[in-house]
Amino acid sequence: MSSTESAFGRLFQQLIELDVIKIDTEPLDARIERRLKQFWENTSCPRCGHHSIVTWETTDRIWCRDCDFKPTYTYGTPFHEKHLTCGEILLAFTLYADTLLSINQIAPLLDRAYKTVHTVIREVEAAVQRGFPAVWKHLNQIIDGPTQVDESGRVCSGYKGQEPPRNSRSRGGSSRSGRSRWRGRHGDQLTLVAACRDSLRVIRGHRGIDYQGDLEPVIQEAKDLSQPLGEVWTDGLQAYREMDRTHRTVIHKERYVSPDGVHINQAECLFSIIQPWLRKFRGLSKQGLEQAAHTFGIVRSLTLAGGSVETAVECLVIGSFRSST
Ligand SMILES: [Zn+2]
Predict the structure, then answer these.
(1) Potential cystine with 116: which of 39, 52, 112, 313 (Cβ 3.0-4.6 Å)?
(2) Which domain holds residue 257?
(3) What is the ipTM of this complex?
(4) For the chain, what is the domain count?
């Protein structure tokens, strides 16, 4: 069994098996349903393009007065035909994005197959990513100060067919060397590039540390989300010399804060908290790792900006409709 055990959540999993945890997503189901219907009333019909959609509180169907199209209110969204309620879908995404639980642990909690939950989480994740910029813009907060940019070493999301390090004390070995030895082939590796400004966290997986291809796009994304971009603070990495922006550096070999107060602590802190979260995935592909890193930055930004479940619903609903049109 040891090969399928992960670092966190074993006791929690037992509680699920003992049927201790009851899930009641009805209030959240109703909230999401209302928001989706509200969105339908303000959008054009996917069939005829007219602004003629009518909804009712008492039925799942929405209706286009022009072309008589009568789909359910989840039509064209990640909530459609998923064998999970809207609230359960948001719950699955929240447990995935905001805890160290893996999909292997979330699926039994919702009493659904791994594949069902995995598919829905990936679709919701993509919708949240599409919806985030619009929601972020309307959070009405002042994003101020310098933008700290940093790049990690090569990271992966743990090991495929992961076997946790054995407790070597029981085998008489030195506990130090035994603890950190993981087995199995690791997932694809990428460099993480982060740009942090105030409560905003942009984090992306990239192939390397080339300025134009890897670092600049992340700085640009931070700029798009927090116009105008302030001063950029980085470490002394050679690649940043190509930067055509107001820019100051801290040389880490010498100190962590430059004499004039330049540092990249926020970015370093972000790397330290994303690593344990990424490890729960057990060997993601490049694409999976890119998508996960992006999500982490979004959820972290919403948390730091004081966002609520409501904000997450908003990202999801707006992103859902962006995909369907
Ligand atoms: Zn129509």
Answers:
(1) 112
(2) 141-306
(3) 0.99
(4) 2
